[in-house]
Structure formats: structure tokens, C-alpha cells
Amino acid sequence: MKKLFLCLLIPLVSFANPIPLGHPNKGRLEFGRNLSRLIKENSEILRSVSPIEFQYGTSQMAAALLEIGTWGSALQRVPVWIGDISKKQGRKLAQHLTHQRGLDADIAYLVHVPKMTGHRFNKFHNRFTEQFGLQGKLGENFDLEANYQLLGHIVAELEVTSVYVGCGIYDALETHDKKQTVSIMKNIFAQKGHEDHFHLRLKCPQGVPQCSNNWWTDPSKTHKKKKKHSASASEKYRDC
Ligand SMILES: [Zn+2]
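The joint structure predicted for all components is written out below.
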């Protein structure tokens, strides 16, 4: 009887499903899955540019990365470079406000020719090598069509709350988007600091009530802060 119990217990422990908890900016991860291993096992479509300890995530993130690699492959722009996701147990990661629950990932833009060295090449994490959309120039190596297609798949086919791209990149994507019959821009936002990668945020998986898609605000500080004049409903978030 004891043996049977152990046989049943061991698979449960080793395959425990990752559970994201809390808010995007204040959360943690239980049973975080090693996505660095997943990336390595799929090296024809994905490439890691962050250390193992910064690449843990949920099952949904694992599936999303494989989809992204597959779309990158169809666009002949692989491997897709994957940077920071989360620590094994989540919580604060380096300078990031988010990346606390295995639901956020930093991913390089698709380029015509991958640049093997560059501005963050020697860093510990997020070793991205090229920035785009600065000083009014998108950059010749930025594959606008391929990035537009990839982001289109991401927002349409994954359970995404938001995608953040650099401001100049956003403007180029938006110009391209206006020529299309259906817009993909609803959940894509301009935010400075995303010149060398885009930030993907997945929704909380269903059935996890302790996981919130909403931002956490410190209740002890809210009364001191003057309420910001709220943007009109038609005004889109933009941090440039
Ligand atoms: Zn990020």
C-alpha cells in the first residue's frame, strides 16, 4: 500500500504545474518550469540570451515560446532570441518592474542579419545586440514585415494582456498597420526601453484566482498621491 502511494505521489511532484501568483509587479511563481532547457532542446527555432536562473515560467509561457519559434521559422527568421522571463520562484528580477510570475518574457525583434555582438553582448542577462527606432530612424536591419507578422500572431493567437515595443518601433508598426484591413495594434503599446526587445505579457491562466492581470498599487501610498488626471477612453497608453 505504501509503495503504491509513493508511486502515485512521485509523478505528482515532478510534474507539478507552475502556478503564477499575485500581480504583474508584485508576484511569485510556484513550481516554475525550466524554460532555458526548453529553449536548448529547440535550438533550431529558439536561442537563449539570458542565464538559466532568469528563464523560468509557466506552461503557458512554454507553449507560447514554442509557437513564437515556429512562427519565426515560417518567417525564416530563426532562431528567435529569448531573454529574461522569471526566476524559479518569481519575485523581483534585476531592474525589472515585472517578470515576477513567469508570465512576462523579453524577446528580440526579428532582423535581416543577426548581429552577433553589440551593446548588451557582454552583460549577464538580456544579451541583446541591436537597438531600433532611435533618433527617428527605425534601422535597416529591422525586418518590419516579419516583426509585424510575428506580433500579429502573438496578439491574435496567444492569451496576451499586452506587448510593449520601443516608441519609434511602435510608430513604424502603426504606419504599416494603417495599410492593412484589420489592425493588430489594440494590445501593443509604445514604451521607452524596448528598443532592443519587445516585452510579452501573458494573461493569468484560467482557474488561478490568486493570479491577477491588474497592477498592484501600494495601499499605504495611494492616499498621498494626487489622483492623476485620467486619460480619456480613446487615449491609448504611451510612455515615450
Ligand atoms: Zn520585459
